[in-house]
Design a protein that fits this description.
Blueprint (H helix, E strand, L loop, with lengths): L17 E6 L1 H4 L11 H16 L3 E6 L2 H9 L8 H24 L4 E7 L1 H5 L1 H16 L2 E7 L13 H11 L4 E6 L4 E2 L11 E2 L1 E2 L4 H4 L14 H13 L3 E6 L5 H6 L4 E4 L5 H12 L2 E7 L1 H8 L9 E6 L6 E6 L4 E6 L4 H7 L7 H5 L13 E3 L1 H14 L1
Parallel strand pairs: 1-2, 1-5, 2-4, 3-4, 5-9, 8-10, 11-13
Antiparallel strand pairs: 6-7, 9-10, 11-12, 13-14, 14-15
Amino acid sequence: MASLNPVVADRRVGAARRLVVKVGSALLVENGAGAGRLRREWLASLADDIAALTRGGTEVIVVSSGAIALGRGVLKLPRGALKLEQAQAAASVGQIALARAWSEALAQRGLVAAQVLLTLGDTEERRRYLNARSTLATLLRLGAVPVINENDAVATSEIRYGDNDRLAARVATMASADLLVLLSDIDGLYTAPPAHDPAARHIPVVERITPEIEAMAGAAASEFSRGGMKTKIDAARIAVSAGTAMVIASGKTLAPLSAIDRGARFTWFDAHATPTQARKTWIAGSLDTHGTLTVDAGAVAALAAGRSLLPAGVVAVDGSFSRGDAVRVMSETGREIGRGLVAYDADQAASIMRHSSHEIAELLGFAGRAEMIHRDDLALDDVALAALGTAAALEI
């Protein structure tokens, strides 16, 4: 049985190893009389929270709405629904303002902000998904805070997410985060929309997303919001299935992340696996394979010890596959020992097999990944590995 996501044990934001926090436009940008202006005091308080979390060892990724809301204020566009081309124009202007706001707020606290713009295809097409995943991992390793938004300047109504709740869930799964926090204009899930039903009850913990839970979703509440409780439940389903716990909490207060750990009301969605376990389950059972890598006994032993598959351990490449495709990993005796997402196209893999990683740049003309399959992208068959280990011991 898969072990519980560790952050679920005490249900604290500060317990997260890697956190994704989603910020909605209605929280970041003034509505009403001050429409289109940045809420600087609120952003500063959230930046304080992020800085405190990073000092405590938590890696933080931000998914921030607000580009269109900021841009429409600068361009003095009319209130109400915008045409697609108006929204894209507003996003083009607003993305600059949004990136500057985040950069300045984090820099004042000694943190480096990195802007990342994503479209639906970046999380659905596997090669682009791996590129984005690698970029996020590198930014976090270098100590930066990625600030992500849907690329509204080029996304169309046919290909866009339509809300940043689901985008945040996709980012959380891409980054193998163990917690996703959706800061909202409501402090969690209720049995019915509380604005319309005074008897609605708040639900503090959702252990499983059932049809009854899904039926509790309401609609969007503000002019700037494209989402609603339904999209948050959709986001929760995406997140928890990938081993990421999720929180819906109010962002109306200052310092909203630390407020959660101080006892503010929220709804917590449990994840019943770790991100790594969920990812490996997906690789092992949900993907069609496109080829085979045969590995030597030394590579089998290295994989059994929890290491990545290096080119030097690969002795044969079969099939037609591209970077990011799932392939089978076979022993020289013909036994499948696992499946993984390969880091090279088939012809490239054939060129670097049996070679050490430091030769890759010379062989391919570019400095690729050191691993043929990284251990995080590899799901191993422990029974097959144990059998091969027993057979090897008997031969000695």
